[in-house]
Amino acid sequence: MPKDSIQVRATASVANVSCGFDCIGYAITNPGDTLTISLKNKPGIDISLSGPKSDSISTIAEKNTAGKAILSLLNTIASDQGFMVKIKKGIPPGSGIGSSAASAAAAVVGANELLGKPLELNDLLVHGMAGEAVASGGFHADNVAPALFGGIILIRSYEPLDILNLPVPKSLFSTAILPDFVVNTRDARRMLPKRVPLNSAVEQAGNLAGFTLGLHANDFELLGRSMVDLFAEPIRAELIPGYHGVRNAAIDAGAIGSGISGSGPSLFALSDSEEKAESIGKAMVKAFKKVGLKSRTFSSPIHSIPPEILD
Ligand code: HSE
């Protein structure tokens, strides 16, 4: 019997990874959003939400990342199938770890499954991106691609879309730290300049190449010295009280590199062991505390799989 309801979980992700503004992202195992999607016998998408800070998210399908992603998919396959979508947010919106991307990724995977898989996983990406654009105001895939495929993803080109899997060194671990305040991605994108100086572009290109080579060669020292952002981080740092102290605390605790996760306010750090990932998290929490901010950490290896169908 074909299913008429499905539960899908997609996880958080870290975008930019310092040197890859809008073109590198990786998935982490926790937290995640869980969506229960059911077929409806009338067209239209009904959305309900629960979880931390979920009251700030629209339940109008066109304005909701999950709803918009499904509408985009339906448009491509010329279907007017209706859905009920219950979104249980585990990733607070506005935290900088791909909250909207996780909902969009789970939505397209779930809807596609219920429709009898008219599209391949790769073809779902543009629909996830259409959903993500509702929240960020920009067409970028550095959260939604890792949420959809797992791993560390390089978006080599947007037009045409060219998505590449980067190798994931076995002993690479991530720490993400979420301070207790919100940065709106749309605003954090608007504050960026439309143009960057040539010397910054050259340095950023060098760092990005160094980062990808570091992953290939398992060279964590090269990874670390490549993890510098000249485009967004220097500007967005002002949005995050204690940014320098928290980043330095991560490095002092043994991180390979650290920076703003996506558009913030979360920061992330990479390290070479699970124990270090944990202790780096503790050091970062302490540093945020110094500026009066509460925070939570999530340590994990790089999450390597697409959204999971739970039921
Ligand atoms: N690359 C995007 C940005 C990620 O930095 O705006 C948003 O989470």
What does this structure look like?
The structure is a single chain. By secondary structure, the protein is of the alpha+beta class. The protein folds into two domains: 5-167 and 304-309, Ribosomal Protein S5, domain 2 (2-Layer Sandwich); 173-301, 2-Layer Sandwich (Alpha-Beta Plaits), CATH 3.30.70.890. Helix content is 37%, strand content 25%. It is built from ten helices and eleven strands. The chain has helices spanning 65-76, 99-114, 121-136, 144-149, 185-190, 198-217, 220-226, 233-236, 243-252, 274-290; strands spanning 5-15, 24-40, 45-50, 82-88, 152-157, 162-166, 173-179, 257-260, 267-271, 295-301, 308-309. Strands 1, 2, 3, 4, 5, 6 and 11 form a seven-stranded mixed beta sheet that branches. A four-stranded antiparallel beta sheet has the order 8-9-7-10. α2 (99-114) packs across α3 (121-136) and α9 (243-252) runs antiparallel to α10 (274-290). The longest helix has 20 residues, at 198-217. The two termini are 14 Å apart. The structure holds L-homoserine.
